[in-house]
């Protein structure tokens, strides 16, 4: 599938770049895209492999800020070097999603290789396969300078609270 096909719009500049090491990560990473769609935040989604397409990774990370991206969500499994390497190149915040790939060591390989970054090169790491949270965190970053997204986040949080409160009432 062409990159263009995976953009939620070809006309609006994406604010969030969702990248992943392999198309096999897509079933996990799709939840981040779903969140951004819900918040009407323009994003792009594509495969960038630190190991199989290293030059593409460097080009992507170098160009990201000038293309208008504000935050990058990077998911990878196994020896998951993509989020850290992208964070080493771009000044943009990078949210790392450890993906539990089929040949992983229960996902610990992905978690530790994304989480254990050296001082000076932070990656905001979410839980294993937690790309939904990566999408929400990206939305919170966008909301810092976007009142509409901020309002949507406040509504989203209120609806979560309401749904939990309703369940509690039901249990009583
Ligand atoms: C990583 O290796 C990818 O992020 C993926 O999670 C894992 C397996 O990739 P495939 O062999 O399925 O392409 O680089």
List the helices and strands and how they pair.
Layout: H1 3-6, E1 16-20, H2 26-38, E2 43-47, H3 54-63, E3 71-77, H4 82-89, E4 94-99, H5 108-115, E5 124-125, H6 131-143, H7 147-171
Parallel strand pairs: 1-2, 1-3, 3-4, 4-5
Helix pairs in contact: 2-6, 3-4, 6-7
The structure holds 5-O-phosphono-beta-D-ribofuranose (RP5).
5-O-phosphono-beta-D-ribofuranose is lined by residues 20-22, 24-25, 49, 76-78, 99, 101.
Describe the structure in brief.
By secondary structure, the chain is of the alpha/beta class. It has helices at residues 3-6, 26-38, 54-63, 82-89, 108-115, 131-143, 147-171; strands at residues 16-20, 43-47, 71-77, 94-99, 124-125.
What does this structure look like?
Its EC number is 5.4.99.18. Keywords: Isomerase, Purine biosynthesis. InterPro entries: PurE_ClassI, PurE_dom, PurE_prokaryotes. This protein has helices at 3-6, 26-38, 54-63, 82-89, 108-115, 131-143, 147-171; strands at 16-20, 43-47, 71-77, 94-99, 124-125. Mean pLDDT is 93; it is low at 1-6. Helix 2 (26-38) runs parallel beside helix 6 (131-143) and helix 6 crosses helix 7 (147-171). The chain has 172 residues and is an alpha/beta fold. The protein has one domain (3-146): Rossmann fold. Strand 1, helix 2 (26-38) and strand 2 form a beta-alpha-beta unit. A 5-stranded parallel β-sheet has the order 2-1-3-4-5, sandwiched between helices. It has 7 helices and 5 strands; from the N terminus they run H-E-H-E-H-E-H-E-H-E-H-H. The termini are far apart. 5-O-phosphono-beta-D-ribofuranose binds at residues 20-22, 24-25, 49, 76-78, 99, 101.
